[in-house]
Amino acid sequence: MMTAILKTKFKELLHLNDSPQKIAMAFAVGVFIAFSPIIGFHTAMVFLAAWVFRLNLVALFIGAFVNNPWTLAPLYGLCLWFGISLYGGISAFPDVSWKHQTFMTILKNLKPYIGPFFLGTTILGIMFAVLSYFLIFFVIRQIKKPKNEISV
Predict the structure, then answer these.
(1) How many C-beta atoms lie closer than 10 Å to residue 57's C-beta?
(2) What domain range is 116 assigned to?
């Protein structure tokens, strides 16, 4: 079922009327948005990016929803691990007693992880956005290449 949805979305991407560069750029910006640590604002960021940069909304949404309910925990876990690896200083996760948790104690426990989390999401977001730009650009150019064009 998930592969059928992915195939459908990819076919939508291929049938957009924009140039391969513009489709790939919109998809890459969407992937960067997918890595954004500001959870809950991805859709608003997609609409804003489409309006500000005049990018294709469909390609942006497809890229942004690389991060979805099924991929949220692994993606953000990877970003946090990567950020901690780069940031340093945090050797172990805190021992949390859930009996007497308040909002303030939760914030106190999470505070050392905010910097690494933002660092990890930003760097991995840039890396995956650049990688996805070249990948999508190449695939779209290969598929949309006229049949009578001779490859050198």
Answers:
(1) 15
(2) 2-144
